[in-house]
Amino acid sequence: MGEGTSEGTTGGTSHGLRCEVLGPLRALRDGAEIPLGPPKQRAVLAVLLLQEGRPISYDGLVEAVWGGAPPAHVRNLVQKYVSGLRRALGAGPELAWTGTGYLLTGIEADDLRERRRLVDAALAARDAGELRRAGELARGAEELWRGEFAEGLRAPYLAAERLRWTEKRLTVLEAVLAGEIELGHAFEYVHELVRLVAAHPLRERLVELLMLALCRTGRPSDALTAYEAARRRLADALGADPGPALRSLHARILRQDPELLPSPPVPVA
Questions:
Q1: Which long-range CB contacts under 8 A does 183-192 form with residues at least 24 apart?
Q2: In which band, very low, low, confident or very high, does the pLDDT at 57 lie, cut at 50, 70 and 90?
Q3: How far apart are the first and last CA of the chain?
Q4: Which of 45, 99, 151, 163 has the fewest beta carbons under 10 Å from its own?
Q5: Cα–Cα distances in angstroms (integers) from residue 121 to residues 76, 115, 127, 134, 142, in the given order
């Protein structure tokens, strides 16, 4: 579930403006969505928001939004989109040229900040042995997602961030599911794990959790079938065998490890 501390913070805003990137980029003032302009202008805003109060050079912004082959008139486009964002965001936020780069202040990606707080609290609860509380907090973080990260915006920087956040989202989800299985709720999550394995067929941690959930619901033969299917997928796609964690669980199932037997739910405190 851990995500490190590299995401940073910029503090809250107080002018009624909220920005969100966990899904299609949107900005709301006092709850009403405001128009942010054409897709590339929105991409510029997303890139600036993700700098979290750090300036980005002109060349860095161009590379982030257009990649290595920008249009010939890209300088005019940058100026046009920066001006458009200043008008769209209105009073409060400031988008300034510092002499070496563009700096966006007075605004942040609020859903990222909220997600960070929830994940950190979930980690603390897990470390304290409060698995139920950890799961509730992590599910709260998951509920902030409205779609893919910066959904629909085409820019090299955002494409890379989209992949990074997909990984982070899955890591948190895996931690939630592991906690639910440990709490004795395997039966309720078997179908979700089947769906997730189908969506991410080469992700071994999901296969491991599915196998564990199947064992905990009295279906070890189905767990072995899931392992064999994963082994074939890995061999066909990567020419590789399952990793140590998956092989270890497979061996435990074969020797009928009593710790894998169905366990009663943990009572609510």
A1: 183/131, 183/132, 183/135, 183/265, 183/266, 184/216, 184/263, 184/264, 184/265, 184/266, 185/265, 186/212, 186/213, 186/214, 186/216, 186/217, 186/262, 187/213, 187/216, 187/217, 189/213, 190/214, 190/217
A2: very high
A3: 23
A4: 99
A5: 45, 10, 10, 7, 13
Question: What angle, rounded to 10 degrees, do the helices at 156-182 and 131-142 form?
Answer: 150
Closest CA to 184 of 127, 128, 135: 135
pTM of the model: 0.82
pLDDT band at 76 (very low <50, low <70, confident <90, very high): very high
User: Which amino acid is residue 187, in one-letter code?
Assistant: F
Distances (CA, A) of 240 to 233, 235, 243: 9, 5, 9
Alpha helix stretches (DSSP H) within 12-155: 39-50, 58-66, 74-89, 110-127, 131-142
| Token representation of residue 216 | 């905990």
Q: What is the DSSP letter of 268?
A: P
C-alpha span between 239 and 237 (Å, rounded): 6
d(CA 253, CA 221): 9
Read off the tokens for 51.
């700098």
Contact 66, 159 (CB under 8 A): no
Contact 76, 124 (CB under 8 A): no
Residue 1 has what pLDDT?
62
Query: Are residues 65 and 50 in contact, defined by beta-carbon separation less than 8 angstroms?
Result: no
